[in-house]
Amino acid sequence: MKRNISDLLDRYPAEDVELGGNTPYSPTRIKEITMKNIHTETKSRKRGFKPAHLLVAAAVAAAFTVSALAAGRMFGAGELFQDFFAAEDGSLSQGQLDAIDQLGHVAGKTAAQLPAAVTQNGATITPLAVIADENIYYIRLRVEAPAGTALPDLDGDTQGYYQLPATLESPEGSYMEFGYNQVRTILTDDDPTDNRKEFVLCFCTLEGETDLKFNDGVPKTLTISGLWIQSPDKEYTPIFTGDFIFDFGLSFQSQTISLDAEGLTWHDELLDYTNTIQSLSLSPLSLTYRVDCSLPVNNNIGPAFGDIKIVLKDGTVFFSEAQDYDAMRQYIQSSPVTLPITGEPTGVFQNYIPFDQPLDLSQVDYVQYGENKIPVNAG
Amino acid sequence: MWEEAIINKIRAGNPAGLEGLMDRYLPYVSAVVWNILRNAMSVEDGEEIVSDVFLAAWNRPEALRAGSVKAWLGAVARNKAKNRLRQISLTLPLEEDALDIPGPDDPPGEYERAVERQQVRQAVDSLPGPDREIFLRHYYYAQTVQEIARQMGLNESTIKTKLRRGRMKLKDILTREGFLREA
Q1: What is the mean pLDDT of residues A205-211?
Q2: Which of A69, A128, B65, B154 is the most interior residue, by most CB within 10 Å?
Q3: B144 touching A, CB under 8 A?
Q4: Searching chain A, which residue's CA lies closest to the CA of residue B67?
């Protein structure tokens, strides 16, 4: 059994070593990216596209104090996430909306209840809807600042960004490794003079580093510590602060389908190694794979999943990814690698690919993996 | 004391805490990421990864502990950089990084991994101080033999000898563990 020493040390408690030396990285640029990202993770969506029924939802929200319940009674998770998924690329199909409906829970609509709104220091945060598969968790929230405080849309360059610091936790011992990345998105606001804004928080498991699953019913506690504005000059102004804590103890209906792909292979023509699929599954939010890889363990090049394409029944390519041989050739030319690479094979690894838009599984015709066409019959 | 104050600010959602963290640890985190990525990625991509490390601290303040913030940042930086390298199908160019250990080819379960972590720690911690530093500089922080030699004022053959001893120690301990697993 070949093991990389570098990998064996992944969990070693790092020691305080002075590394010294210069790097070409710019501290100024890194600081700028980081401070901007605690919002571009809260990036403003372009104004413009707004489905008609969401305008109705906004009107309903304006008419009732508990707008989340009002919206929830009228709309499913699909409609409540449509402007999030489709802001850049137009509206979602009915099939995509239905897929999200079945993946999610909506305030006041589904049997499993979302946590109630929390009010602190005059501000209220209300969970509106959640959707999840095992890899990804989306939470839509309405944030209401204290009365009289307007929450306008902000131009990042001249006015700054909103920040909504949030963490997710599970009870101690629920998982061996609880690891996730987080992205926040501010949704377009139809009334920039009022005190409301809606956000979508997206949590993604760390690939290959965690046993955390989002759709398994293990309680997840979301904590939000307030709403801030960061000015372009990096001055920080709290709009409100508090401990807004929400316990999500929800199970989610899995939409995942396993594909009959075991044993199918993809061959890397340049490096001459083969991946053999052990399992391949699709959910409306992501594709999960487990492959046995023959690439010899070496000091320079690790395995890729391979060329993958998801094709819909109308011929549309929903997702496509292919090995970049030109980039690899360039790398090899500038590295000590000599082909063929020899040694013990890498073995089994698992990972997932998140989708930008939900996938209507009923419309998938096939998945192309290398030369293999894998039919998909999701009913 | 300083770390406690910074952590409290981050936990309160105060961005000044994050800026304070970057002021102190940006050179260190940049060095960790650079040592792993080198020229495999553009400078801009590397900077984004460094930025991601601090965003992770911002998003997971519960993971920060006073006294071990630098170590946490280093571990996150290392993992993120290694993951990014894997995504473009590259691995670290280290001295004889692949260790041949007798044992089953099946991926280890949680228990085996926990035992393995313990064994790795035991092996590394049993190395004499300077040897351990050299071993970690190379296999943990991905510094080249030349860089280690320069920074520690030793010649390259000494560094290589000490790395070989570290590999032997690690293999010895893990081999004994592999035997126990098979037995």
Answers
A1: 69
A2: A128
A3: no
A4: A16
